């Protein structure tokens, strides 16, 4: 069978995608500015800022089977060893935030995480709030940042096709693909400075995200009072507005006479017992640039110039090796649809999403484009 790959996303109605709202002249980017920006707009004062944070702070619900929970920066560091590549024999175990170096050569320092730190500690977790306002803007972006000590493996749904019709399907745990130390995720809630109403929401989803306009919010989110409920996907911690598989990256190979299709699963559930983070009760305001008087002091770790995890790590998995992983996971029923040549094509589609040449720890929040109000969308 000649293997061909269909790159197009499946139509929204066939996969029950949530609405992708892109109110921007540049497709794929939502900036902090709006068409009604005015030089007369005034910023929020600190008491009002805290009031709005607590009014709209999301309720984060984790998957009922989530093994890698959010935690605090301090707890994460307590399970880490700070390593200096220039002096590898000198290691700082359980460094404090103040011991994190703020200068050095590129990639000089990195953090080793001990296995006992991977699960995180939800009871110590908090959301780190960055309030972003630009002079003249009529709104403020309340960015709620979440930190996870570890990102778990990806999950793939594969279906067998006969004459382009689905006949069988199954889910595959792609471990160790997708695993890495450290994971920063974020939810942005944009509020109007004058009316104090909720204007729009952006949710991080891996390297991009999903943007909801004011009109799309009521039909997309569940609210507890004035606060939206956000669901974090199992292992990958991408943020979604609803419970479900949250399918993404649909691909199809062949189909006539036989073939297969697949998509990445980003499963969310209503949250297991104790797997909820109340962001109104557990938050720290770490940045609000327009507020003077040294009241809100941005901690140095916000823009730490090194990685929240290891440096110099890489993967050597090839498409053929990944194809073998997938074939073993498929089982006999699906495997008959998948000669190794077809699986190799499928694997080449999987690799860019889960297997990176650089699987180091993530960069700091302040190094992300979204920190400055550039919100990439699918």
How would you characterize this protein structure?
A hairpin with a 2-residue loop joins strand 12 and strand 13. The protein has a domain at 43-150 and 181-248 and 267-310 and 362-377. The chain is an alpha+beta fold and 378 residues long. The chain has a six-stranded mixed β-sheet with strand order 13-12-11-8-7-20, with helices on one face. A five-stranded antiparallel β-sheet has the order 1-17-18-9-10, covered by helices on one side. The longest helix has 15 residues, at 340-354. 15% of the residues lie in helices and 31% in strands. It is globular and about 70 Å long. The chain has helices at residues 12-15, 46-56, 73-78, 217-220, 319-330, 332-335, 340-354, and strands at 5-6, 29-30, 59-62, 80-84, 91-93, 109-113, 127-132, 139-151, 155-162, 165-173, 180-192, 198-205, 208-212, 223-224, 227-232, 239-240, 248-254, 258-264, 276-278, 283-288, 375-376. It has seven helices and 21 strands. Pfam families: Vps62. InterPro entries: Vps62, VPS_Associated.
Descriptors for this entry?
Vps62; disordered N terminus; 5-stranded antiparallel β-sheet; alpha+beta; VPS_Associated; 378 residues
């Amino acid at each position: 069978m000649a293997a061909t790959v269909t790159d197009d996303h499946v139509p929204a109605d066939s996969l029950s995608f949530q609405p992708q709202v892109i109110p921007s002249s540049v497709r794929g980017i939502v900036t902090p500015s709006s068409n009604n920006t005015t030089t007369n707009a005034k910023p929020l004062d600190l008491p009002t800022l805290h009031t709005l944070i607590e009014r709209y702070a999301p309720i984060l619900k984790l998957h009922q089977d989530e093994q890698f929970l959010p935690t605090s920066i301090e707890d994460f560091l307590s399970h880490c060893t700070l390593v200096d590549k220039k002096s590898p024999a000198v290691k700082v175990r359980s460094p404090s935030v103040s011991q994190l170096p703020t200068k050095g050569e590129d990639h000089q320092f990195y953090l080793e995480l001990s296995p006992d730190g991977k699960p995180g500690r939800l009871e110590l977790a908090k959301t780190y709030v960055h309030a972003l306002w630009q002079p003249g803007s009529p709104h403020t972006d309340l960015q709620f940042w979440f930190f996870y000590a570890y990102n778990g493996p990806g999950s793939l749904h594969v279906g067998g096709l006969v004459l382009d019709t689905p006949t069988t399907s199954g889910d595959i745990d792609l471990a160790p693909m997708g695993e890495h130390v450290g994971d920063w995720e974020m939810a942005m809630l944009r509020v109007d400075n004058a009316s104090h109403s909720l204007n729009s929401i952006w949710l991080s989803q891996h390297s991009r995200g999903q943007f909801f306009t004011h009109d799309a919010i009521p039909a997309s989110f569940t609210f507890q009072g004035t606060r939206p409920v956000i669901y974090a996907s199992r292992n990958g911690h991408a943020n979604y507005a609803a419970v479900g598989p949250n399918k993404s990256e649909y691909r199809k190979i062949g189909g006539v006479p036989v073939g297969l299709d697949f998509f990445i699963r980003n499963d969310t559930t209503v949250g297991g017992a104790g797997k909820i983070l109340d962001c109104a009760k557990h938050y720290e305001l770490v940045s609000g640039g327009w507020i003077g008087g040294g009241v809100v002091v941005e901690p140095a770790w916000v823009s730490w110039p090194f990685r929240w995890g290891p440096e110099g790590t890489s993967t050597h998995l090839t498409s053929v090796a990944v194809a073998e992983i997938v074939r073993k996971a498929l089982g006999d029923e699906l495997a008959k649809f998948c000669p190794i040549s077809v699986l190799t094509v499928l694997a080449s589609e999987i690799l860019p999403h889960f297997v990176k040449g650089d699987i180091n720890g993530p960069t700091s929040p302040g190094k992300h484009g979204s920190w400055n109000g550039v919100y990439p969308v699918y």
